[in-house]
Amino acid sequence: MELTMTATPSAHDCPLLIGTILTQGVARAPGQEIVYADRARYSYRELEGRVHRLAGTLAALGVRPGHTVGVMDWDSHRYLECFFAIPMMGAVLHTINVRLSPEQVLYTINHARDDVLLVNREFLSMLAAVADQIENTNTRFVLLDDGDVSPLEGFDFEGEYESLLAAAPERYAFPELDENTRATTFYTTGTTGLPKGVFFSHRQLVLHTVAGRALERGTAQGELTTNDVYMPLTPMFHVHAWGVPYQATLKGVKQVYPGRYDPARLVRLFQEEGVTFSHCVPTIFQMIVGCEAARGVDFSGWKVTIGGAALPPSMCRKALEQGIDITAGYGMSETCPILTLALLPRDLVDADIDTQVAYRCRAGRPVPMVQLRVVDADMNDVPHDDKTPGEIVVRAPWLTQGYLHDAEHSEVLWAGGWLHTGDIGVMSADGWLRITDRIKDVIKTGGEWVSSVDLENLILQHPAVAECAVIGVPDEKWGERPLALVVARPDLAIEPDSIIELLQTHVDRGHIPRYGIPDRVAVVESLPRTSVGKLDKKLMRQTLAQE
């Protein structure tokens, strides 16, 4: 039997390209608003026009398919334009992490081999410190001035973004690309070694966009819908703001970009623009709802997806009590990032708060087209009993195929044909994933594995604890022992013994092993974090553990 399909000669084999996301969004909602703080407001139709003008501007600067354009900016309408124009040209968008050190920024610019840099004036001092070390001597610079057009000493700029766009042709002839053309590159912010470049194709980004919210549950709980107003609270340089700007554009929803993350400004935009959907790491969420400007603000109806770190049950409960529809998600830079979402099935949407917290704080269930396994050291699946831990390995059509210019680490990432996340988790019989730790952070003590995440969640129940991190420190007898680092709430004091007593109650109830009680609780002023807000436990082990 002949199973091979033969295309009709005149048929069009439609590739999956980022430009189709923009086209669909403009067709769906041409008059919908895109807002940049209090500085810009325009329609989807105008977004499309500006994307064409940006492409024409870059082409005039010599950008061709295969070239790389780096962007250093806060979350803005300009960044959204770059999300589309640069890949649609066949060039590569390099979203530069502006929270890295100047030396690390330089490393990523050189490693990505940027041909053009679009730079917000606020980052010029960082760039000036390393500009003479940029290896591509033909790199050209464009100023993202944010309204400031004063002269600049020491920089040879091709022009200012808005002026260049105003002078560019109204239309640009975007090429028909192979869907496997590389579209974006950015760098992981891991706590070991130099940043690693991950990259994604047009096809991968389109599939990620379609699958990210393609869940048929009969409820809109936790999901981005066409009626929502979207404001990202995850930087656009980090995994394309988790890919949600592409999803928002495809759906034609109102988008609000806040610029630099200032808590008072974020609260004001939330109120003035009617924001209903956001995503962020736990620290950013706490920064917003806990700031002075948030006092008395009604956050009810706000849908927030938490990722990048575990959603603490105490935070989840408080948010639900405020009427916030808070939900955990799971992914990583290498996975574009969405793998799972803790969206409630219809029968749990109206469940009691204890049940909802238990489900919402899990990593959730895989989104469509994600294959996810929890395996032992020999790549055998562990029992789905919500107790047996193993490493999470995944496959999906949008996972990075490797690290840029780094074959050795790419092979490690994909050992055995599955992408290794480096996370430890357990799976329930009904397919709900719960992350228990990073492989490098799990504490091996007294012959048992103790989850630092579980200990942190229990310690956060203490009324005086604002933040907590648990790390393993070397111990001659037990191999490792837990050390708890805690930050007190304002105007409250923490007695270390009260933390020990709290954990002892959970040992007595069988929630944690007796080896899980730390030998020492250290009260600190703050906890070190990575450039994207994650706890930097490597640095803690190197420094705080020795105090």
Structure description:
This protein is an alpha/beta fold and 547 residues long. It has four domains: 18-32 and 42-199, ANL, N-terminal domain (Rossmann fold), CATH 3.40.50; 212-370, 3-Layer(aba) Sandwich (Rossmann fold), CATH 3.40.50; 371-393 and 419-440, Luciferase, domain 3 (Roll), CATH 2.30.38.10; 443-546, GMP Synthetase, Chain A, domain 3, CATH 3.30.300. It is 28% helix and 23% strand. The protein has a seven-stranded mixed β-sheet. A five-stranded mixed β-sheet has the order 12-13-14-15-16. A four-stranded mixed β-sheet has the order 2-1-11-10. β1 and β2 form a beta hairpin. α2 (44-60) crosses α3 (77-88) and α12 packs across α13 (353-360). The longest helix has 17 residues, at 44-60. The mean pLDDT is 92.
Keywords:
Luciferase, domain 3, Rossmann fold, 4 domains, seven-stranded mixed sheet, five-stranded mixed sheet, 547 residues, alpha/beta
